[in-house]
C-alpha cells in the first residue's frame, strides 16, 4: 500500500511544494506507486496574484495539470474543509457539493491567505477588490460598465482603501486603465485612503519619497490618518467625517491566513499564521508541515519573519515540499532560510522602485525599476515549463530564487 503526501492549496507555496517533494522522491529513486503526492485545490491553476492590479486579470492564471503530469503529482479538484490531525485525513468538498475524505501520511498545508474584510457597514455589498482572479475580473467588468455612463466626477473617481503595497500598486495603475476606458482627456481621480499617517507604512523611509513622487506625477491623491467607517454605492466616509464621492471603491485593507490553520495548531499569530519549527513542521501536529502565507517562519538568524508574499512563499514551498517528503523517507530535513530579501513596487506609468535588504536600499527606479518589475511579474514568479528535469530542478530549496 502506497504512502501518501497531501498538499493543500495551489498557490505559490503549494506549487513549489509539489516540485520540492517530487524532487526528493526522484532523487531517492522512489516510485510514484510507492509514495503518492496529491495536491488539493478548487482549480488546477496558479493564480498570479501579484499581477491582479493590472488590466486583463482574466489572463493572470497559469495551468498546472501539464506540470503535475510531468513530475507525477496527482490533482484533486475541491476545497479542503476539515483537517483531522488525529485521523490524518482531509475532508474535501467538490464544486457540486460532493464530499470525500483523503488520508495522508504527511501533510503540507499551503492554503494561503484572503483579504481581510472587517465589519464596516456596506463594505461587503459595495466594495470591489483584487484579491483573486474572480474579484479582479469583477472589478474590471465594473470599470468597463462605468465607461458606458455619462461622464461625472463620481463616475470618474476611484477610492482605494488601504495604503500598503497592494493599495499603492492599484492606485498608480488605475489612472492609465481609466483613461483607456473613459477617454484620454477624461478627468480621472484616484484617491488612496489610509488610517495610517504615512503612505506605505511598512515600506520604510527609503522607497516612500519615490511613491510620493509617483503620486504627484500621476495625480493620485492620499487621504491619510483616518480610516473608512462606511461604504455605500456612491462612495465612502472616514472616521474624521470626510466624504469622498466615488463610483468605485476598492478595498485593499490587509490579509489574514486561511482559517484551516486553526485546525492544525493552537499557536497562531495575529494574522492567523502557524508558529512553525525551523523545518516548517507543526510541533503539536505530527506529520504536518506548513508553508507560505499560513506560516510564521523565521527567514534568518536576525529575527526576520517571512512576509505574506510570493517571494517568500516560493522558497518556503521548496523547503516545505522537500521536508515533507524527506521526513516521510527518514531523510534529514532542512531548516528554512531565506536571508535575501528584495522589494519591487510598481508605480504605474511613473515606473517602479526596486530595493534590496530589509532596510530597503534603493537599487533601481523609474524605467529601470519598471523593467525589473516586468521580469519579476512575467518570468520569475511563473511555474517552470512542464519538462520533468526543469521542473524538478525548480523544486530545489537550496537554489537561489533571485
UniProtKB/TrEMBL annotation:
Keywords: FAD, Flavoprotein, Oxidoreductase. The keyword Oxidoreductase applies. InterPro entries: FAD/NAD-bd_sf, FAD/NAD-binding_dom, NADH-Q_oxidoreductase. The keyword Oxidoreductase applies. It holds the Pfam family Pyr_redox_2. GO terms for biological process: aerobic electron transport chain. Its cofactor is FAD. It comes from the Bacteria. Residues 4-317 form the FAD/NAD(P)-binding domain. GO terms for molecular function: NAD(P)H dehydrogenase (quinone) activity. Belongs to the NADH dehydrogenase family. This is Pyridine nucleotide-disulfide oxidoreductase. It comes from Caballeronia glathei.
Amino acid at each position: 500500500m502506497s504512502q501518501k503526501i497531501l498538499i493543500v492549496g495551489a498557490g505559490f507555496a503549494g506549487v513549489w511544494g509539489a516540485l520540492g517533494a517530487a524532487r526528493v522522491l526522484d532523487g531517492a529513486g522512489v516510485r510514484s506507486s510507492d509514495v503518492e503526492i496529491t495536491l488539493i485545490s478548487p482549480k488546477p491553476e496558479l493564480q498570479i496574484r501579484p499581477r491582479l492590479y493590472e488590466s486583463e486579470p482574466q489572463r493572470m492564471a497559469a495551468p498546472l495539470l501539464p506540470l503535475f503530469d510531468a513530475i507525477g503529482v496527482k490533482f484533486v479538484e475541491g476545497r479542503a474543509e476539515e483537517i483531522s490531525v488525529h485521523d490524518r485525513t482531509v475532508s474535501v468538498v467538490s464544486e457540486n457539493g460532493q464530499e470525500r475524505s483523503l488520508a495522508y501520511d504527511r501533510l503540507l498545508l499551503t492554503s494561503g491567505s484572503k483579504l481581510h474584510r472587517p465589519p464596516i457597514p456596506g463594505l461587503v455589498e459595495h466594495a470591489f477588490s483584487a484579491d483573486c482572479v474572480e474579484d479582479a475580473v469583477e472589478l474590471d467588468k465594473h470599470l468597463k460598465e462605468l465607461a458606458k455612463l455619462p461622464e461625472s466626477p463620481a463616475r470618474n473617481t476611484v477610492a482605494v482603501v488601504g495604503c500598503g503595497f497592494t493599495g499603492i500598486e492599484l492606485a498608480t495603475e488605475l489612472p492609465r486603465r481609466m483613461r483607456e476606458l473613459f477617454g484620454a482627456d477624461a478627468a480621472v481621480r484616484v484617491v488612496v485612503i489610509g488610517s495610517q499617517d504615512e503612505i506605505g507604512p511598512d515600506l520604510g523611509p527609503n522607497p516612500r519619497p519615490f511613491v510620493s513622487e509617483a503620486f504627484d506625477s500621476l495625480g493620485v491623491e492620499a487621504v491619510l490618518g483616518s480610516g473608512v467607517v462606511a461604504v455605500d454605492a456612491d462612495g465612502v466616509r472616514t472616521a474624521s467625517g470626510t466624504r469622498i464621492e466615488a463610483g468605485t471603491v476598492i478595498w485593499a485593507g490587509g490579509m489574514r491566513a486561511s482559517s484551516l490553520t486553526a485546525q492544525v495548531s493552537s499557536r497562531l499569530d495575529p494574522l492567523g499564521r502557524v508558529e512553525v519549527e525551523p523545518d516548517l513542521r507543526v510541533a503539536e501536529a505530527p506529520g504536518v508541515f506548513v508553508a507560505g502565507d499560513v506560516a510564521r517562519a523565521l527567514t534568518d538568524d536576525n529575527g526576520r519573519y517571512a512576509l505574506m508574499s510570493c517571494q517568500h512563499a516560493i522558497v518556503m514551498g521548496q523547503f516545505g515540499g522537500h521536508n515533507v517528503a524527506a521526513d516521510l523517507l527518514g531523510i534529514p530535513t532542512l531548516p528554512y532560510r531565506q536571508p535575501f530579501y528584495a522589494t519591487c513596487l510598481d508605480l504605474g506609468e511613473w515606473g517602479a522602485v526596486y530595493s534590496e535588504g530589509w532596510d530597503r536600499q534603493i537599487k533601481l527606479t523609474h524605467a529601470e525599476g519598471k523593467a525589473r518589475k516586468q521580469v519579476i511579474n512575467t518570468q520569475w514568479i511563473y511555474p517552470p515549463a512542464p519538462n520533468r528535469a526543469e521542473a524538478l530542478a525548480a523544486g530545489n530549496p537550496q537554489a537561489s530564487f533571485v
